[in-house]
């Protein structure tokens, strides 16, 4: 996708990813340009009205009762952006800032915000020039929008503050000049329109839902490899058993496990009467139930994401019939909740994966494998400390699962007396997604070694394909070696989707 048209219709997840991660170009559609001009006409007509209109001829927030003279309104908008660009802490990732700017441009393109056409075009030009404003970790309470992060972007469009171009920090004025972009001089209503949205948290939700969809398929692959290598049974994944509890995510996860385990000689080797095991441990047997609950949570989050992508969030807003009305659509609760829900699902998915991994390392539970899967237990420690790393990650994930959206600290002299903390929920979900990626990579690393140790019995074609893809980067069983690079290679293979792709090339697309 080389270029996307930003119009009055909703953006898709794919379009957001194309711009945020792959630098696709953007342009305003003809319909959007007309809608922007029409809504600006409404604002211009109100600018000279003696009656006060919020954000047009008044101050902001708790200062909304103060009338602003026409001669001071440009200064009002400029002061709004400068004062609100008050972020602190580490820089936010480039992909998040690009998603944020695109989503704010998308709202501007609906014609519901009242900005001038040149203001919207400046955002498009900055995205196309690869100019990324420096935005900081802290500053958004997730209500009245992601104020500080959005203000830093607006500040850069004004030619102030710091941006990055090609990774290099530069003054915004210099970067805009080099790209041939004229800094905007904000007029009535525009400062509000550029800062009153949940675009930061929505951008992070959009990125996370994409990444988690892959990780849920990866979790099914990891579970299949673990069940197989621990001489578990796939009988519990039968479709008729799963249908007794008809959750869609559970059904999909079980279907994936059946497909991944089809044709396994390891599974066939212990199906006869000589097998005395009645039931597998919960971490094996209940994989579809745990993975499925997370999948259903993700489906709900995607529903909220798509509704938000179809929204026009601003305050006040220009209605279709030409009114300018205050509203509360900037409140981040709908997004904040699902961001927290996903962090809970990620933590539990990692927790069950760690339990499956731990079973491989204990001779009392691993059904004939060497202790810690070591080459020479005692001399070698095998994957003992890899599980420590997993445990540390899972513990961190549990902390990240504590909801942010249940908190609220009043602000703006009690005018903004209940806030969502959705930005904080989004920030911790990004860390949770990264930690989950590492946990699943360590499970796959461990399960692959166990599958190799089961030779001459052979795994299922699909799990074997994933194991073989890993072996292109990570050597098989042997004496202890520097383990961190192996873990890093497995993490990269999980994050890129190459392990899932290898399995799918054999068993077909996973659900």
Strand content: 5-15%
- The number of strands is 9
What CATH architecture of the largest domain do you see?
A: Up-down Bundle
Uncertain stretches: none
Distance between the termini: 24 Å
Helix content: 55-70%
Please tally the helical runs, counting DSSP H or I stretches of 4 or more residues.
Answer: 20
Mean pLDDT: 94
Largest sheet: 3 strands, antiparallel
Q: Any idea what the CATH superfamily of the largest domain is called?
A: Fumarase/aspartase (Central domain)
Instruction: Tell me the overall shape.
Output: elongated
Radius of gyration: 26 Å
Strand neighbour order, sheet with most strands:
4-6-7
Order of helices and strands: EHEHHEHHEEHEEHHHHHHHHEEHHHHHH
Please identify the structural class as seen in this structure.
Answer: mainly alpha
Which fold name fills CATH's third level, the topology of the largest domain? Fumarase C, Chain A, domain 2
Number of domains: 2
What is the CATH class designation of the largest domain?
Mainly Alpha
Keywords: Cytoplasm, Histidine metabolism, Lyase
Subcellular location: Cytoplasm
Pathway: Amino-acid degradation; L-histidine degradation into L-glutamate; N-formimidoyl-L-glutamate from L-histidine: step 1/3
Family: Belongs to the PAL/histidase family.
